[in-house]
Design brief:
By secondary structure, the chain is mainly α. It has eleven helices and three strands; from the N terminus they run E-H-H-H-E-H-H-H-E-H-H-H-H-H.
Length: 334
């Protein structure tokens, strides 16, 4: 091992697509996407916080999704960029465990949250008379607490246990972040029992929520088709189609990576799936939810209008402050 990259307990991250001939271009693209994701999700959080019309359960859950997207993409990209610009590839044992824990926490939390968002839309469309009771502010806070707590506990179990397996041979990880399959592949002992546990838990946290979301949207579609109001039908379809697009992006890559045999796809394919799920999707989410949502667009226009009015008001006061003394002097002279 290259000792300049770390000690014997460090792992070596080979980086994002190590065989690609233009790594500088690749890291610049990743940083650009990261900037878009950071700006888009931050704007969405601020709009939901400032605009009283967006203080509803749907937008509360959407703000939680934006927080998760910010945390999710920040769990991998900054370390990748830092290693590249510093010319290093190492990550310490504890930093690797921490990165794995946060990555799993935010990924699992997003999976659960998307299921709750589908439930929210199901109640709003199929059972609107009980919506205020079933999705009260107290219930929403309990949902958010359950999402974060449940995801953190499950991620902790799937971080501590794999990290305790003894590691033999090369400590190189053919990825741009520490991931569980790579750590398991380095182990000296038989991990088949844990692999079965991992597969079972993956079914619970990925496949079951995905099926619940599909069931929710099937019921929503049936309810929408029976609506008499064309305006209400279009609004429901626009909101639900945005959420369903995000669901397909997230669950598609997650199922491909974690529910298919490792031998059936190459490390490069794993990286493509990881980039789509952990970097591209967080950047697309605010665009998907805002471009087709008139309420979010209206809140953004209102916020920009306020900013422009304040700037124009300051400019007008500034001009009056410059002109008024000269007018007063002229009047006094006359």
């Amino acid at each position: 091992m290259d000792q300049t990259n770390g000690t014997s307990t460090d792992f070596i991250l080979l980086g994002l697509f190590p065989g690609f001939g233009h790594p500088k271009l690749l890291i610049l693209i990743i940083l650009l996407i990261y900037t878009v994701a950071f700006a888009g999700n931050s704007v969405l959080i601020v709009l939901i916080w400032l605009d009283s019309h967006l203080h509803t359960p749907m937008y509360f859950l959407l703000s939680q999704l934006s927080v998760l997207d910010l945390a999710y993409i920040s769990s991998t990209v900054p370390k990748t960029a830092s290693n590249y610009f510093q010319g290093k590839r190492s990550i310490s044992y504890f930093a690797c465990g921490a990165q794995m824990f946060f990555f799993l926490t935010f990924g699992l939390a997003e999976c659960i949250l998307l299921t709750l968002m589908a439930y929210d839309r199901n109640v709003a469309v199929c059972n609107p008379l009980r919506y205020a009771v079933l999705m009260s502010p107290k219930v929403c806070l309990q949902m958010a607490a359950a999402v974060w707590t449940g995801a953190a506990l499950l991620a902790l179990a799937h971080t501590v246990y794999p990290m305790h397996f003894p590691i033999c041979g090369s400590r190189e990880i053919n990825h741009y972040f520490c991931e569980m399959p790579a750590i398991l592949g380095m182990s000296c002992v038989d991990t088949s029992a844990y692999e079965m546990v991992k597969f079972a838990s993956t079914i619970v946290v990925l496949l079951v929520p995905f099926l619940l979301i599909l069931a929710s949207y099937t019921l929503i579609l049936l309810a929408v088709l029976n609506m008499n109001s064309r305006k209400g039908r279009n609004k429901a379809l626009a909101t639900c189609s945005s959420h369903l697009t995000v669901v397909c992006l997230y669950f598609g890559q997650a199922i491909f990576i974690y529910m298919t045999p490792t031998s059936s796809h190459t490390p490069e394919q794993d990286q493509v799936g990881a980039v789509l799920g952990t970097i591209v999707t967080p950047a697309l989410n605010p665009l998907i939810y805002s471009l087709r949502n008139k309420e979010v667009v209206g809140a953004l226009q209102k916020c920009l209008g306020r900013c422009c009015n304040r700037e124009n008001g300051w400019s007008l006061q500034h001009d009056i402050g410059k002109v008024l003394p000269s007018i007063l002097r002229t009047s006094t002279t006359n």
